[in-house]
Amino acid sequence: MKITAAVLDKVGASGPFAQTRPLRLTELDLAEPRPGELLVKINAAGLCHSDLSVVNGDRARPTPMALGHEACATVVSAGDPASPFKAGDRVVLAFLPACGECADCGSGRGFLCAPAAAANGAGQLLRGGHRLRGAEGEVYHHLGVSAFATHAVIDQRSAVKIPSDIPPEIAALFGCAVLTGVGAVLNTAAVRLGESVAVYGLGGVGLSAVLGAVAAGAHPVIAVDPLAAKRALALELGATLAVDPAEAHDAIIAATNGGADVVIETAGKAAVLAAAYQATRRGGRTVSVGLPNPAEMLSIPAVSLVGEGKTLMGSYMGSSIPSRDIPRFIALWRAGRLPVDRLLTSVRPLSDINALLDELASGNAIRQIVLP
């Protein structure tokens, strides 16, 4: 079938993106889903810093690539009559379709699934190959989803069924921002009632981490970001204190009597991760969530890992199992304990995608939703 998608032809673009226009809307041929795959109509897709990282070259990906990895969609058809999904099902798309067969999947850590990571890195679907083709040949998939489009073919393990009454622009947020940020708090760090939490970086993932910390009963919850508007929003969402990065270390030490039990870094910068580690108390946990440029190196006092008993933890996709965590995070949203709708900055047509990249790069946007 013919679809319209936003395609990146070359990584390494610089702004202003509204002028350089690295993403072009074009017509593509989309193949029929194979057994174990779904054809879905994209209802709403979120613009994430991970998308920007591909555009600007921080994350190397093959091109041409149809971008977009955070979305809500409706199932059109399944490639297998025995599929648990049927036409009309509303789904949230997850950007790592765990294979269910490797050692990590078998141990309950599907977020570390090596076959899925390899497929994502190669720009293919989990079952191999491509389902997209343009005028000049095959087009790569972004994280198994390619959601900046009217339709997509995905592995059915990328889909999590949700109730149909959730607004698509809200449901899309659960596919990455909420899954990653709240998951980092509840799954990776396993924050306990009364523990202190600091969050460095208040984009969609960072503010989701703030929401997760508040929902977990953490205290105090300290939010760190250079932008005053984001700090103000963090306070509205339940943070105890919100500070500029220049003041963060001293403020965290003072507010927690020596350092936070858990410090979560979502900025994707090695220097910010080092600052987060320094603000972690003896015996505490530092959680790295942001994706820095692979060339960046982290420098911390090696002796502190032993001498201070600190733990440095990586958190991919919030250490989440989408089929388990998306429904429970949605339940928390329905109960009013995760007001993720407050993260929504704008809802715009897909034709505005390049201008939206500029807003994201400026730091002023939290979560922008595009409608195909």
Helix segment count? 13
Question: What is the SS-derived class?
Answer: alpha/beta
CATH topology of the largest domain: Quinone Oxidoreductase, Chain A, domain 1
CATH class of the largest domain: Alpha Beta
The shape, in one word, is globular
> What oligomerization state is this entry in?
single chain
Overall number of strands: 18
Largest sheet: 7 strands, mixed
Helix content: 25-40%
Distance between the termini: 16 Å
Radius of gyration over C-alpha positions, nearest whole angstrom? 20 Å
Please identify which CATH superfamily of the largest domain we are dealing with.
Medium-chain alcohol dehydrogenases, catalytic domain
Name the CATH architecture of the largest domain.
Alpha-Beta Complex
Strand portion: 25-35%
Counting structural domains, the number is 2
Mean pLDDT: 97
Runs in which pLDDT lies below 50 for 5 or more consecutive residues are none
